[in-house]
Specification:
The complex is a heterodimer of chains A (about 70) and B (about 250). Chain A contains one helix and five strands. With about 70 residues, chain A is mainly beta. Chain A has a five-stranded mixed beta sheet with strand order 2-1-5-3-4, covered by helices on one side. The N and C termini of chain A lie far apart (about 45 Å). With about 250 residues, chain B is of the alpha/beta class. Chain B has an eight-stranded mixed beta sheet with strand order 3-2-1-4-5-6-7-8, with helices on both faces. The radius of gyration of chain B is 18 Å and the shape is globular. The chains are: A mainly beta (about 70), B alpha/beta (about 250). The interface between A and B is medium-sized, with 21 and 43 residues.
Amino acid sequence: MSKKVHITIQAGEITEQTVEIADDASYENLLDTLNINQETVLVLNEGNAVPLDGTVSSDKLTILRVVTGG
Amino acid sequence: MDDFEREKYSRQILLFGEEGQEKLKNAKVFIAGVGGLGSPVSTYLAISGIGKIIIADFDCVEASNLNRQFLHHEKDIGREKVESAKEKLLAMNPGVEIEVIREKLTEENADSTVPGCDLIIDALDNFEARHILNRLAVKRKIPLIHGAISGYTGQATTIIPGKTPCLYCIFPGVSRKETFPAVGTTPGIIGSIQANEAIKYITGQGKLLEGRLLMWDGLFCSLTEIKLAKRNNCPVCGGQMGEIPESDSR
C-alpha cells in the first residue's frame, strides 16, 4: 500500500510537489525518494521538526534547508 | 575578585551579581574553531570574564577569511589562527587564560585532545567534525552549543545531553566540507547568540535554546524557531529510548 504526501520545499525558493511513498515509509525514505541529503534539511510537520527515523504520519510536510558553514 | 574586576564587569554584575561573575571566572569553555563563528564567540566570552577558554583550530589565516573572521587581520595571513586569536583575545582581556589546540579533531584523538571543560561550543564549518564533537559532548554529559551559517542565514541550538535531542538526532547525515558564501554579519549574529547561551548556562539565567532551533534569515531580518525532537533510536544519545543500542555503542 502507498500514500501521497504533499511536500513544500523551502530552499531559497519555494517549490511544491506531491510524492507517493509506502505506507510504512520513514522520513529518511521520503528524503531518499526526493534525492535530498539528510544533513542539509529539516522535515517539519505543522512547524515542528520530526525525527527522520520516524514513520511519515502526515500528508502535508515542509522540508526546510539548513546551513552547515561556520 | 579585585576592585578593577568589579569595575570592569560592573554592568554584568548588575545582571547576575558578583556570584554570577565568579561563576564565569571559574568556568572553562572549549571553542572548536576560531573562524567566522569562533571570532564573536571567543571575543564575547573573553571580555565577559570567562576564566579559561580553550580554542582549537588547525587552519592558518587566509585572505578569504578576513571579511568575517575579525580576530584575524591582514598582517596575520599565514599565521596559525589559534595564535592570531590568542593574541587579540589577551589584548582585549589579559585576565582570561587562553589555551590553544592546533590538532585536527578526529574520532580517535577527540577524547584525549579536548581537556576537561564545562561546555563545548561548536564554531566549526562542517558536519563531519561536528558529529565528533557531539559524540564527545554526549559521552561527557556536557552541553554543546551549536551554530552554523551560510550566506545571510544561520542557525543555533543548545544541546543538553540526556535532556534534548543531540546533534545526530537533528542532523544525522554527513556531507563534504565545501566553500560556502558568507557575509560577516551572519556569523556575527549567530556567534553572539552562541556566546549568550554560554553566559546564560554558566550563570544559570534565562531559558536556553533547549530542544529549539533558532533560524536567522538576514535577507528578511527574521527569526524562526523550530521545535526539535529526539530520534526514536539514536546511535549517539539513545534518542527517545533513552539508551544507546548495544550494537551502536562505542
